[in-house]
Predict the structure.
Amino acid sequence: MKIIVNPQKCPQNHSCPSIAVCPKNAITQRDIRSLPMIDDAKCIVCGKCIRFCPKNAFEKVP
Ligand code: SF4
């Protein structure tokens, strides 16, 4: 399993609030108009970003 950010749901017009809740610092965003990126090597698929994102843009995929 891994986490992806759905570009259809993320408006890509603000600083990603889920960056602050990730315990592994696995989420980065180049600038506030960029889709957040997940570093799969750091991500432990804990799901905190999924629960926190107000746009439900984070998704767990096989
Ligand atoms: S699932 Fe957990 S570790 Fe992975 S990006 Fe989201 S908050 Fe970070």
About this structure: The longest strand covers residues 2-5.
